[in-house]
Specification:
heterodimer; A: alpha/beta; Peroxisomal Thiolase, Chain A, domain 1; two-stranded parallel sheet; 14 strands; B: mainly alpha; 7 helices
Chain lengths: ~325, ~120
């Protein structure tokens, strides 16, 4: 029985994250997790002519590294599932143009990392594909231009604002046994509590994370104690305490096991305001640092809840509020 | 004393701008146009010239001074040419500033990598 409760599933087969690859920009590599990333650049252009090309370069790197680690070539992969933050998912779409395989583009803003991973695991479980590459990317400068203001405009940001991470993360999903097994997922619903401040997306996404985590625990019949880590994508230092408060008021205490990828990514003295965000944020932290820790045995079972704010700048100017979504994937350490 | 009043008046205008950003939640574009309109209105009541002679650069450097120059030029030409003078004169005093913005913008983009 794969379906659990209303919004969750477990996998019938044993499906694994066979390999992962991460590439990051300068600020991420200078952060506390700098050493865990596979590749880093000391310049936002990543050796390319413009920032959009740099973002695709990061994505291509992450894919290439993943394939190399697995000792595979493109022809061994059945499908590519990817997404990013730019209009029409251009970074993923244009990268897929050079890949000779079926492609599904997905958009869930910063939740795309777990959205693609959940769908890939389900497709592999169903036997529709043997090996699937899932990848996401974001770039600070392309996101600033699209969602906020051109950087040279010099607009001030309040302390609640997050900073879009520059990087890309890729995971190869297959039935090839590895130390990281995908146990199941909870697919979130779109939640809107009426937040309108695009400079505080952490708070805007809290209700979605709250809803998905609560639903996950109830669907799986678990408590936070069943996890060594419940990690959210990019709720930031502003949203994280609110999430804990909301869950605590329902009798769910995640204080001991909660971390936020956006808070793990940078040092406090890097001037990143409330923390990291962006599609890449949860992916680069999960696919490098968190999986490393699982392989070491620090964590046996973790719940990754990637959160996404689903607004766009036009609708914000039309005074619409900010809907959000969160998807959770359960990862389990396996002895090989 | 000149420096002191320039600092106080210029600083006060900046505080006003910060309040518009933080409290009124206006974005930078709206703050800028608010200040231009404010400069026009003050000049309309003949107040901005007094402020300029009192605070010097404290009043001439902020963008409110641009509004003051827009109205000043427009009214001057309106006296000479009537209604159409408003359009003729609007950019007379401000043309140096606008031309400088375009010229230096061009030069910077030629010598440095334009971003954003």
């Amino acid at each position: 029985m794969a379906k659990l409760g209303k919004q969750s599933w477990t996998l019938n087969q044993r499906v694994y994250i066979q390999e992962t690859g991460t590439s990051v920009g300068p600020k991420e590599s200078r952060g506390p997790l700098g050493d865990s990333f596979d590749k880093s650049y000391d310049n936002l252009y990543c050796g390319e002519d413009n920032w959009e090309m740099a973002e695709r370069k990061l994505l291509q790197d992450a894919i290439q590294i993943t394939l190399e680690k697995a000792g595979l070539k493109q022809q061994h992969i059945d499908m590519f599932i990817a997404g990013d933050l730019l209009n029409q998912n251009v970074s993923a779409n244009y990268t897929a143009r050079d890949m000779d395989m079926s492609y599904l583009g997905m958009f869930g803003a910063c939740s795309t990392s777990m959205e693609t991973l959940a769908v890939a695991s389900q497709l592999v479980d169903a036997g529709v594909a043997d090996r699937i590459l899932t990848a996401v990317c974001s770039h600070n400068a392309t996101a600033e231009r699209q969602f906020r203001f051109p950087t040279e405009y010099g607009n001030q940001k309040p302390a609640t604002a997050t900073s879009t991470a520059t990087g890309a993360g890729c995971a190869l999903v297959s039935r090839e046994k590895s130390q990281i097994r995908i146990e199941g997922a909870t697919i979130g619903k779109v939640v809107d509590f009426g937040a309108t401040n695009a400079f505080d997306l952490g708070s805007a996404m809290v209700p979605a994370a709250y809803d998905t985590i609560k639903r996950h625990l109830s669907d799986f019949g678990r408590t936070p104690a069943d996890y060594d880590l419940i990690v959210t994508g990019d709720l930031s230092s502003v949203g994280s305490p609110i999430l804990k408060d909301m869950l605590r008021s329902d009798g769910i205490n995640i204080d001991a096991v909660h971390k936020d990828c956006g808070n793990l990514l940078y040092n406090n003295d890097q001037g990143m305001l409330a923390g990291g965000s962006g599609t890449a944020c949860s992916a680069i932290v999960t696919y490098s640092h968190l999986l490393d820790e699982m392989r070491k045995g620090t964590y046996k079972r973790i719940l990754v809840t990637a959160t996404g704010a689903l607004m766009n700048p036009t609708l914000i100017r039309q005074k619409e509020s900010i809907p959000a979504i969160a998807h959770s994937v359960v990862l389990v350490r396996e002895e090989v | 004393m000149d420096f002191f009043w320039a600092f106080v008046v210029g600083g006060f205008i900046c505080v006003l701008g910060q309040l518009l950003l933080d409290v009124a939640k206006l974005d930078a574009g709206h703050v800028m146009s608010t200040f231009v309109v404010l400069g026009c209105v003050l000049d309309g009541f003949d107040l901005y010239d007094n402020l300029l002679s009192f605070a010097g650069a404290g009043a001439s450097v902020p963008i409110t001074s641009f509004g003051h120059s827009l109205l000043h030029g427009a009214m001057e030409q309106a006296d000479k040419h009537g209604f159409w003078g408003i359009a003729l004169g609007m950019f007379q005093l401000t043309s140096a500033g606008i031309a400088a913005a375009i010229l230096f913008g061009f030069l910077v983009s030629v010598f440095f990598k334009p971003r954003g």
